[in-house]
Amino acid sequence: MTAISVHGLSKSFGGAMALDGVSFTVPSGEVVALAGENGAGKSTVKNIIGGTLRPDSGRVDLGDAGNVATVHQETSLFPDLTVAENIMIGRLGSSRAGTVRPAALCRKVSPLLRRVGAGFGPEALVRELSAGQRQLVEIAKALAHEPGCIVFDEPTASLNLDERELIMRIVEQLRDDGVAVLYITHYLEEIFRLSGRIVVLRDGRLVADRPTDEFDRSTLEALMVGRELAQGYPELAEPGQETALSVHGLGDGARIDGVCFEVAEGEIFGLAGLMGSGRTEVARAIFGLAGRTGRIEVGGRPLRRGDVRASIAAGIAFVTEDRRNEGLFLERPIRESLSIVGLDSLTRRFGRLDHAAERRLTQDLATAVGLTARSGLEAGGGSLSGGNQQKVVLAKWLGGRPRLIILDEPTRGIDVGAKAEIYRLLAEFARAGTAVLLISSEMEEVLGLSHRVGVMHDGRLAGVLDRPQATQEAVIRLATGGVR
């Protein structure tokens, strides 16, 4: 039985073709993966199926689906309301006096929470939940509508390994219960585990629609990006002899304490560990975004505490894990996100901006990272795909030729082609003598890109592994409190 049939969908935005005659089906009791690079048209398909966007031509037939629910990458919950209130927000039961009945809400929501394996109750406040728990609330919220089809859009992008596993088990259970699932993700291992069929989009067109067992990883990647990707990770050059970053007894008064390590010029130093181990706190304390104890030296010179301007002046660049809220201006021109770090060098007397110099700088930066902005640099940052947004966040720092680049989850939520480009750039930075502090939840990424790997556990650095000793088993042992 077919839950959803997509017939000849086409959609343009400002003259740019986002979808061009896309057709496929999603049967009941099956997971269909929708694959493609950022900008391939996946979100446009999702929004048309979900009813938030109208196609220029074509149609969507719901068939046996009855209705469709969507679980988005970014949760849309009210933090100060309870779990029950969030799940039932569109149809809160009330008495004749117009008051909400919490007990009735909890009775309705409890079975949904049990179905998704939630370890919290309906009365919990959403603001007290972890990212993974909030995603469970989103799934329960979708199930409350008893949909025949659920669209999952990057549901595990910001989750740790245990939370990702739980979400995948829920998807498998939904499939076994007869629910149709359209699954969008950049994690290829999730596609191969969960899906029965893969629909591949490239540049708004359907390029493949066939059973999953007819694909292997390299074939899927080639279909997504239109070319064969270089296998593995780029070759690393030998680091220099000089120390770029020295961290001595680093703490933040809360989550991390006594962290010590050094990064040489031209070295990629990976920082691994489980979610909550303190990796991000180390990065933010070094850059000056949090109070700190201990001592930090950049190029042999002490770095002033809690001072972002001093960090930038010392040659530190910071690529945040939250690019949409902290990394670029979504509503402002891409040009402004690219030039923000170098504004001082672009300012004339009396504070006037040299617009010609800004245009030259931003075009050079966009070229350096291979930025694709089809609508030009005057378009808003939010118009870019995730991979191109990440390139902007990285490019804005390059004008100052940083001595150290700190990257926190640099490839989260971006496609395989953009990942390969980011990997190439990191290797080039290191080859040019820039030190790189790389934080990533993807084990293969840390091991494949790093000269050495530091492993965090419970707010402390549990150990540092040289490249030959840095295996998955060794990292996991340290990350879980074991010894080398």
UniProtKB/TrEMBL annotation:
Entry keyword set: ATP-binding, Cell membrane, Membrane, Nucleotide-binding, Repeat, Sugar transport, Translocase, Transport
Gene3D superfamilies found in the cross-reference section: P-loop containing nucleotide triphosphate hydrolases (3.40.50.300)
PROSITE patterns on file: ABC_TRANSPORTER_1 (PS00211), ABC_TRANSPORTER_2 (PS50893)
Domain ABC transporter: 4-228, 240-483
GO molecular function terms listed in the Swiss-Prot or TrEMBL record: ATP binding
Keyword Lipoprotein among record annotations: no
PANTHER family, A to Z: CARBOHYDRATE TRANSPORT ATP-BINDING PROTEIN MG119-RELATED, D-ALLOSE IMPORT ATP-BINDING PROTEIN ALSA-RELATED
Name used for this protein in its record: Sugar ABC transporter ATP-binding protein
